[in-house]
Amino acid sequence: MSPPGRLPRRGRLHSLAAPYALDALEPVERVRFERHLDGCDRCSAEVRNLAEDTVRLSRSTAEPAPAALRDRVLAAVRTTPQDPAPDPGRALRLPPHVWGGQPPARPRACRPRPLLVPYATATAAAALVVAALFAVQADRTRDELDTARDRAREIAHVLAAPDVRAAGGRDDRGRGIGVIASASTGRAVVTLSGYGDPAGGRVHQLWLMRPGAQPRSLGLLDGDTPLPASGLDRTATSLAVTVEPEGGSPRPTSRPVVQLALESVGFGE
Amino acid sequence: MEADELLTLVADGDQKAFEELYAVVSGPVYGLVRRVLRDPAQSEEVAQEVLLELWRSAARFDPRRGSALSWVLTLAHRRAVDRVRSARAAGERERREARRARPPAFDQVLEEVEAGLERERVRRCLDRLTALQRQSLTLAYYDGYTYREVAERLSVPLGTVKTRMRDGLNRLRDCLGGEA
């Protein structure tokens, strides 16, 4: 959710429809434009048409694929499980190629990957999320733990990305911040622990820090409840938490109480 | 069977249908990826990822939102562009030097287009665009440049590139006809 001050102008965004259909936007713009599309039926229809037009350009490029490719793909298919159908309510509002809209794979992804790795990693990621959750919630009641477990399951599902990684830090007073993130999908889950609630009805607000750009709000943190965030662009260098007036601010109004570098989880290109 | 129908069967886990789908889409997918990436080994790798993703994500295909072939090629293009940009980011400095040394060959891709009916039609239609429309489209679609990079390479304002892309696509639609 963009704070009010950062909503891009409609006209300017709209002119990005053709570059978007040609996959000619930078990752940050792509994410922003897709967020815009999500709430604009007219734009989605236009993008759909433009996307059909761009596909015409591929009519001149078809060429037979190497025979070895067929063998490899068909062999992989026999051992690869399929993803379940997406939630229809959400899928319907999205333009045709948004589902493939993750930011570019990092250069290190260039090396060939064994086919089943994503699944193994997803399981590992799920375990990580659950561990991170319970580490800060050990003193909770049974009911609260059950709620947390449900949430963990939800989050683990969101983070079932092949490149998910975790990072965290703790200060000498035992307060800490943890993040589990996937650079390829631009998603993350952030947990703050030991900071309590700020006095006077104020709130902890989470920001994405990028070089040469304003901090972007990722939402408000509620105690130590994990906060899922999406649309993280690869240029992001760190996460920061500030204390803000009730309801949050469009821009940080105070110095961060804690900051965490994202380099080790695959960001900061 | 048409790709649309096959993809629906594939979504239900039909491996035979996938083999048929492979026969229909592998050429267009591999060719497009190859056009963008140039390098055969990398192209094969990305094509493999895309084709396997079709198997995994077939359930996400919604025929109400466009044809299966469009869906597949859109995915292939996105993956190819993402890969070429990653590779390019690595060698960006070298290329900046090279660009200073000699002007870029904008229409290179057109010259490389081989004979063939579809190729010929697309080429003829591209030829009917203005040079700026054509270059904006081909640099973005076939070479994987962002519109900012296209503007920089062509030394024109960003707004101009955006409108040329849109106009170019519209004219291409008129020239190539309605059938996808």
Automatic annotation (TrEMBL), chain A:
Segments traversing the membrane: 116-136
Topology in the lipid bilayer: Single-pass membrane protein
Domain Anti-sigma K factor RskA C-terminal: 123-257
Nucleotidyltransferase in keyword set: no
InterPro entries: Anti-sigma-K/W_factor, Anti_sigma_zinc_sf, RskA_C, RskA_N
UniProt xrefs under Pfam families: RskA_C, RskA_N
Protein localization: Cell membrane; Membrane
Designated name of the protein: Regulator of SigK
Native species: Streptomyces griseicoloratus
From TrEMBL, chain B:
Record's keyword annotation contains Nucleotide-binding: no
Any one GO molecular-function label of the UniProt entry: sigma factor activity
Organism: Streptomyces griseicoloratus
The organism's taxonomic lineage, starting at the top: Bacteria, Bacillati, Actinomycetota, Actinomycetes, Kitasatosporales
Domain RNA polymerase sigma-70 region: 26-88
The keyword Protease is annotated on this UniProt entry: no
Protein name per Swiss-Prot or TrEMBL: ECF RNA polymerase sigma factor SigK
GO BP terms in the entry: DNA-templated transcription initiation
Residue ranges annotated for the RNA polymerase sigma factor 70 region 4 type domain, each copy included: 119-172
Keywords, comma-separated and alphabetical: Sigma factor, Transcription, Transcription regulation
Pfam hit, one: Sigma70_r4_2
Protein family: Belongs to the sigma-70 factor family. ECF subfamily.
PANTHER family tied to this protein: ECF RNA POLYMERASE SIGMA FACTOR SIGK, RNA POLYMERASE ECF-TYPE SIGMA FACTO
Domain of life assignment: Bacteria
